[in-house]
Amino acid sequence: MKIQLKQIEEVAIVISAYVDNVAVAKMDLSAGTLLFHNNKTIELIDFVQQGQRFSLCDIEKGESVRQYGYSFGQSKGIPAGKLVTNSNIINKLPKVELNGYKEPPEFQLKNEYSRKTFLGYKRKGRFVGTRNYYLIIPLSMCASETASQVASFFENDNSFKQKYTNIDGIISIPHTEGCGCGSGMQINRLISVLKGYALHPNVGACLIIDLGCEQTNMESISKHFKSLHKPINWLTIQECGGTDIAIKQAQKIIMGQLNKINEVEREDVSIENLVIGTECGASDSFSGITANPIIGNAIDRIIAGGGSAILSEIPEMVGTFEMLLPRFRTMNIALKFKKILDWYIDLAKRLNVSMTNNLVAKNIEGGLVNSFIKSLGAVMKGGSSVIEDVIDYASPLTKRGLSIMQGPGNDLESVTGMVASGATIICFSTGKGTITGNAICPVIKIASNATTFEKLSKDMDFDVSRLCHEKCSIEDLGLELFNKIITVASGEKTWSEKWKQRQFQVWTAGKLSL
Q1: How far apart are alpha carbons 363 and 431 in whole angstroms?
Q2: Out of 20, 152, 325, 409, which residue is the most buried by the measure of CB atoms under 10 Å away?
Q3: CATH number of 5-90: 1.20.120.1760, 1.10.10.10, 2.30.130.110, 2.160.10.10?
């Protein structure tokens, strides 16, 4: 039977038409399928499953295999129309030359975005929140269950929700840290995260609970929580006389603060007050082609309006130095980024762990042949603007615009760190589907493909699969997501909020989270 010749755009995605030598199948393609591309006919040698890559030309042995215009491996010799797998490429990248670096031009705001506003909660210290929470912070694992029980009391009280309409909830952030460990970096990191949450503009007031004898007890760390420009109360379980009394005292303290927190109302404020954290989890081939570039487009608009964004997940940036180098504000910032990349690679070597473990079975099933192609797609969610700074995990932002945060690929630990650094909205792309949220920050779930959006219709907030199947562009969907960010920032609940997905997990110092 004669196979009809098809234009490649009908069935596959070619990102950089005259640079890339691979394409991604939009649908399952049979061996023998004839495709027309760049005035040439390609016959597929293999069956190509949706999301998998195939070669657009003969890729000679030793030649770079490229997508997004950048190498993600070295060919072992791949003929045109061949399925690209980890068996016919070598995980090796060209050396990045630094001598051609030039500082990017100064950033310019765009009036069409700088005039955009959202309804936010103004705080002292010129911060603006997208939510208004009362936060219960346990200082250790020993105080975490008590903190959760206090929060549950209010969570189950329907009259509370009816009376305090401007309060989004009374939330606790239980964790497993704070004692039984070394007194250095691990404790310091916990303090940074907890302080970031206490300071966070989505938090109107805090109750901090300790057991009394842990390393992170009130006496030892209270100095870190001074001058936070909001009501902070303290409670020590051992001093109260035990769990029952501590819970009752905590309830009384919180009740005394609620009227004041409820007085704060949303006001019209500039989007320069927004900080967008970006995350991807359970990725597939389409994550880097649909969801992440569309997040990046929306982020560029936020930054063009004077706002800020955070790109993290350092293990998912290995192999992207060449791509990102022209975007660093200075060479020093570029070298700082390289230093944290090298730190991860060195730690993995010392622990005899492969960085490729970042690529799980479902990623590979979804068409990601190695960690480098996953990384090239992952950084797309950072958009195209200048990278103004590189910060440590959970450290506060110091510059407007786009910053990279040292952090793991682990979704919960990464999001927790970005929120501690000041993110007030999270844009989270997913290919296979993930349901997690955050304790105090709304998370917008962006599905990279139609199957996941339909299958998890009450967990996914935004469908970008339309890029492949409808007459719309990254620009169109980027603007649509930009407007979605503004409505969520103004109070619209995301699915993870509706289902009370309130995850909080600290990246423990010394742990190689991929």
Answers
A1: 9
A2: 409
A3: 2.30.130.110
